[in-house]
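Reopening this one. Same input as before:
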Amino acid sequence: MKKKLKKRIRNEGGGKKSSLEKMPEIESKFLEILKTHTAGSPQNEKIIWTDLTCLDIVKKITEAGIKIGRKLVRKLLKKHGYKKRKIQK
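Same output, byte for byte:
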């Protein structure tokens, strides 16, 4: 037999809100910066990448007056379908 779960101590939805929820302008600035630094595969339109590193993107967004970290940049890259690409020698 399964035990019944106890009543919740904390309310749902509690905790720290994400930076994207608090400052929606981060995402628009992110996309604006990547607009000129995006490339893709000619065979598959779904595969896109950027020539900027996460740190480069952080620096460009910080110059625009928005404080952001590399972890959030990685989340945004994943959310918008950007893939990592290694340069072949």
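So the earlier flakiness isn't reproducible anymore. For the record, The chain has four helices and two strands.
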